């Protein structure tokens, strides 16, 4: 049967992370999960039960989480430091900068329930700043997988990386977006759908919505390319520039503040290459979001098939 | 080496760190002078760390959380042969690897530090790894007293006790001063020993300039099986130079030409007293 992206429901990326980590840990006792009272929210209870010697619990202390992880990683341990992205990338930002990135200890930082996954729990629990702050820190790869396939490959790739990496994903079940035979490579985007009128460049859990927007636009006679930019840093500049030359407009999509994230990264690539193409950044505005579920927040701010289709149409027909 | 030989070495370290701070026109004079006897004993008597074994996973680890006192560390590492002492001519100069705080670009340094309240957590991670591997090496972390107000330290004091890291030793360079003034005036720390005990550490208090006493205490870690070790080393900020001692304004003050000559003269006189 032909694979059709976005039609078959999968698991939460968080669950795939947990399963993949279990599989890595089963073959290597050096694989460790370090948690800050976050094994439940990280779906790591089965990991803790199966590999009790390979989980390190530090309690609700994110600074310590990252510092201890750096020490463990310095001795050759394969360390996944797991904490809600909102706390991991704010409370312990200085530890990320100095103890992990500047000191170059290859910790795998795992920001769970990222973006607005926590929905109505409010802005304390949202990470809409993490891509921006980490992009400005040297020596860290940033990956926001869009589906189970990308999550599995990103978690596996992280294990072999000799420098720091940040993985970011949410907790809702995701649709499968990739044929399992697709090649996953850190730093290389994946084109899910080809098209020539407009290109959506999306990352993380917004990719699905970009794909649905593409399908909606196709029914209105507008041809859309949809790119999953799973690696936000280093950015696949080649695919961004190719989109500018191949299509009539670009819309970037992210579950992040419009300041400093994927959209501005793409804009910088385009401007500095002299590429002139109609361009819009869709994400969360510079405000504390309205109350609602992740889905409601997405719809409110236009990160939905309908909202993205409207943005693309306005861009093409101003 | 005998105690007297180490005492002489400490004075030479003091002379050198002042020399390179003077040449660089920058550095943390007071804190480097206060911790240098601790470094002397650690590197020359206690720790199994040398240029020859620095790549060996079984080596001991030293983490300098009070990264600003890097000049003391640089002169000790040079003396141990990690790099030629002449490298220190470049301290803080354009494109030098010898930055004003420790970085791993310098041979012998395990971890980049300088932002305070970071070293202990890193050290605890290394100690935890040793426990998991059933490895025998030990981890030594030097903390400043002023940096103890950083809350991150206390996260690690709790976790290290929880994980029974008796292979982890934290040494507090208790010189009672920080950049603004007395630690007890800025944000009182006392009673420190009781705080550490309450957090589950075994505490010993020692004269941080007494080579024999430091050797004795540091040679006994772990003090208690299953407990991390805490050494409060009572020191004098600026130790060894009369007009620098106990004056917080010397936190990162660089001596003038005449002050530099006077400091070296005082240290030379100490060498003469020791028969060197």
Question: What keywords describe this structure?
Answer:
heterodimer; A: 318 residues; Rossmann fold; 2 domains; five-stranded mixed beta sheet; 12 helices; 20% strand; B: Rossmann fold; five-stranded parallel beta sheet; two-stranded antiparallel sheet; 12% strand; globular
Word description of this protein:
The complex is a heterodimer of chains A (318) and B (276). Chain A has 318 residues and is α/β, with parallel strands linked by helices. Chain A has 2 domains: 167 residues, Thiamin diphosphate (ThDP)-binding fold, Pyr/PP domains (Rossmann fold, 3-Layer(aba) Sandwich); 127 residues, Rossmann fold, CATH 3.40.50.920. Helices cover 37% and strands 20% of the residues of chain A. Chain A is built from 12 helices and 14 strands. In chain A, the strands form 3 sheets. In chain A, strands 3-2-4-5-7-6-12 form a 7-stranded mixed β-sheet, sandwiched between helices. In chain A, β10, α8 and β11 form a beta-alpha-beta unit. The longest helix of chain A is centred in the first third of the chain and has 15 residues. The mean pLDDT of chain A is 97. Chain B has 276 residues and is α/β, with parallel strands linked by helices. Chain B has one domain: 3-Layer(aba) Sandwich (Rossmann fold). Chain B has a 5-stranded parallel β-sheet, sandwiched between helices. Chain B has a two-stranded antiparallel ribbon with strand order 4-5. In chain B, α1 runs antiparallel to α2 and α2 runs parallel beside α3. Chain B is globular and about 50 Å long. The mean pLDDT of chain B is 97. At the A-B interface, α3 and α5 of A face α4 and α5 of B.
């Amino acid at each position: 049967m032909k694979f059709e992206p976005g039609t078959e429901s999968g698991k939460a990326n968080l669950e795939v992370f947990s399963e993949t980590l279990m599989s890595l840990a089963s073959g290597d006792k050096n694989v460790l999960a370090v948690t800050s009272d976050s094994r439940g929210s990280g779906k790591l209870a089965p990991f803790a039960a199966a590999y009790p010697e390979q989980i390190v619990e530090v309690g609700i202390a994110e600074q310590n989480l990252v510092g201890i992880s750096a020490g463990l990683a310095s001795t050759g341990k394969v360390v996944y430091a797991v904490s809600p992205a909102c706390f991991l990338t704010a409370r312990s930002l200085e530890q990320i900068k100095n103890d992990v990135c500047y000191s170059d200890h290859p910790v795998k930082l795992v920001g769970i329930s990222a973006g607005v996954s926590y929905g109505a729990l409010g802005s304390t629990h949202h990470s809409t700043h993490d891509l921006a702050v980490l992009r400005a820190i040297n020596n860290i790869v940033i990956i926001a997988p869009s589906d189970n396939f990308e999550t599995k490959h990103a978690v596996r790739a992280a294990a072999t990386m000799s420098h720091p990496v940040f993985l970011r994903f949410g907790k809702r079940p995701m649709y499968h977006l990739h044929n399992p035979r697709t090649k996953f490579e850190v730093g290389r985007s994946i084109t899910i759908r080809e098209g020539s009128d407009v290109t959506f460049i999306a990352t993380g859990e917004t990719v699905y919505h970009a794909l649905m927007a593409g399908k909606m636009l196709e029914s209105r006679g507008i041809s859309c390319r949809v790119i999953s930019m799973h690696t936000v840093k280093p950015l696949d500049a080649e695919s961004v520039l190719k989109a500018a030359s191949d299509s009539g407009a670009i819309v970037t999509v992210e579950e992040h503040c419009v300041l400093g994230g994927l959209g501005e990264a793409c804009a910088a690539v385009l401007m500095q290459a002299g590429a002139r193409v109609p361009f819009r950044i869709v994400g969360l505005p510079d405000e504390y979001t309205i109350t609602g579920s992740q889905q409601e927040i997405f719809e409110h701010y236009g990160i939905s098939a309908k909202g993205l289709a409207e943005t693309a149409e306005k861009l093409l027909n101003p | 080496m005998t105690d007297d030989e180490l005492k002489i070495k400490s004075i030479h370290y003091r002379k050198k760190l002042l020399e390179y701070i003077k040449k660089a026109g920058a550095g943390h004079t007071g804190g480097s002078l206060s911790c240098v006897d601790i470094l002397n004993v650690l590197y020359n008597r206690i720790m199994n760390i040398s240029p020859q074994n620095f790549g060996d996973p079984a080596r001991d680890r030293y983490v300098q959380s009070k990264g600003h006192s890097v000049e003391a560390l640089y002169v000790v590492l040079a003396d141990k042969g990690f790099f030629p002492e002449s490298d220190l001519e470049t301290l803080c100069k354009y494109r030098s690897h010898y930055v004003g705080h420790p970085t791993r670009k310098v041979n012998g340094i395990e971890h980049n530090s300088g932002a305070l309240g970071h070293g202990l957590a890193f050290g605890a991670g290394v100690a935890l790894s040793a426990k998991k591997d059933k490895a025998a090496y030990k981890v030594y972390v030097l903390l400043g007293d002023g940096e103890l107000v950083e809350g991150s330290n206390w996260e690690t004091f709790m976790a290290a006790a929880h994980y029974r890291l008796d292979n982890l030793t934290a040494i507090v360079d208790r010189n009672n001063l920080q950049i603004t003034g007395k630690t007890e005036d800025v944000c009182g720390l006392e009673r420190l020993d009781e705080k550490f005990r309450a957090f589950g550490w075994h505490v010993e208090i020692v004269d941080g300039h007494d080579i024999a006493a430091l050797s004795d205490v540091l040679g006994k870690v772990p003090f208690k099986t299953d407990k991390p070790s805490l050494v409060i080393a009572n020191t004098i900020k600026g130790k060894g130079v009369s007009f620098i001692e106990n004056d917080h304004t010397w936190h990162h003050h660089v001596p003038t030409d005449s002050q530099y000559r006077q400091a070296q003269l005082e240290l030379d006189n100490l060498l003469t007293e020791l028969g060197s």
